[in-house]
Amino acid sequence: MANRTNSPGRADAQASPATLLDATGLSPVMQKLATQLQLAAATDASVFIVGESGAGKEIVARAIHDASDRSGQPFVAVNCGAISGTLAHAELFGHEKGSFTGAVAQNAGYFEYASGGTLFLDEVTEMPPDMQVHFLRVLEAGTYQRVGGSDLLRANVRIICASNRDPAASVTDGRLRQDFLHRLLVIPLRVPPLRERADDALILAQRFLDTMNAQHGTQKVFSKHMLDTLALHDWPGNVRELRNVVQRAFILSDQQLDTCLQVRARSGRRAEVQDGALNFPVGMPLGRAQREFILATLAHHDGDKRLAADTLGVSLKTLYNRLDVYEKDGMPE
């Protein structure tokens, strides 16, 4: 649920935030985002990042942290949709020994782990409304108490949050408290999907490859076939999908990276939604079909994971586990 380290996760698979957000050669929309990022980093104001899944919201958050005065302090990422309802207070604020069944020792919470640094709230629109109230009080008062404790602790953190939902629509839907949104939405940033900046795909792919070559002491290159395929792909999984495709090709290739399986070109065989039904081509592998079905259901419900899980007849935790697998492994073929 939380990454409590100060270094980016899966470092062997991705370039640093600074490298990926270097606007040199990128589309005008990304050059604008890079400028906004630098302005945001110069302040301590809350930032609200909006963008599709896989577009690079956490990369943007880490880049803001790395460019800020808090760069030497922790960057703690919290998946708000995966916070346990019964233990939410203890996870956020920590707890004292004996404060509840199973509390065998004092434990710090996310605020304490991130002290002096940045607390990144991913999927903040999935945070339970009652938890938003307590969170808002901490942000306004600047202090909090561990569960079962009496000492006031200072909340010295910079808040950056992200969502794949429209913040205003989330307020209308009752997912997000308006006063909570006002506290978070000081600096709004939008990360455009890769399909809106298709020319960036080849530049980013090369940066991923450069990073992998540097890490492994290799000099691998892309084949013309792979470059052509990357240029044609519609990238429904955005930058995350691109990274996974390049990493997989890097691992499976000798000197020249090539692929005819990991990338789905626009003309490729894939499941299609027609008249509310999902049509699968004959011969599609079972794992791929399951992935298509899950993601199509999630898209049908506009990214509402709870509703998608109910529709699929699985628990929210099971759905998150499947999405985590797709994030780490890329798109099965």
What percent strand? 5-15%
Strand neighbour order, sheet with most strands: 1-3-4-7-2-8
Element order, helices and strands?
EHHEHEHHEHEEEHHEHEHHEEEHHH
Task: Return the domain count.
Answer: 3
Q: Give the biggest sheet.
A: 6 strands, mixed
Ends distance: 28 Å
Which runs of at least 5 residues are low in confidence (pLDDT < 50)? Answer: 4-14, 260-268
CATH architecture assignment name of the largest domain? 3-Layer(aba) Sandwich
**Average of pLDDT:** 80
Question: And the CATH topology of the largest domain?
Answer: Rossmann fold
Gyration radius from CA atoms, angstroms: 21 Å
- What is the global morphology? globular
Q: What is the helix content?
A: 40-55%
CATH superfamily of the largest domain: P-loop containing nucleotide triphosphate hydrolases
Number of strands: 12
For this entry, give a set of tags.
333 residues, globular, Arc Repressor Mutant, subunit A, AAA+_ATPase, Helicase, Ruva Protein, domain 3, alpha/beta, 14 helices, 3 domains, two-stranded antiparallel ribbon, 12 strands
